[in-house]
Write a structure and sequence with these properties.
It comes from Leptotrichia wadei. This protein has 3 helices and 5 strands. It has 91 residues and is of the alpha+beta class. It has a single domain (4-90), classed as RelE-like (YaeB-like fold). Strands 1-5-4-3-2 form a 5-stranded mixed β-sheet. The relative contact order is 0.24.
């Protein structure tokens, strides 16, 4: 079962910025492919649930200070990519 990937408007802006910054976009989408199949990420990505304003969302580390915030909607099989950036940019 593969989840349909949805991009928030904010994510699209942050993806464009990441490309300008020379980030490895292929690395990002390898992780997204794993998530779309709802497989468990390798421990090196530090995948974990978020709290407070981001309750219900998850975060993983693409690189040490490059993060992906995402959320599963199991009832409609959608993986929503919400935010992308460094700790200081996101929190």
């Amino acid at each position: 079962m593969v989840y349909k990937i949805k991009f928030t408007r904010q994510f699209k802006k942050e993806l464009k910025l990441a490309k300008k910054q020379g980030k490895n976009i292929n690395k990002l989408f390898k992780i997204v492919d794993i998530l779309a199949e709802k497989k468990v990420l390798d421990i090196k990505y530090k995948d974990h649930a978020l709290i407070s304003n981001y309750k219900g969302f998850r975060e993983c580390h693409i690189e040490p200070d490059w993060l992906l915030i995402y959320k599963y909607y199991d009832d409609i099989l959608v993986l929503s990519l919400s935010r992308l950036g460094s700790h200081s940019e996101l929190f």
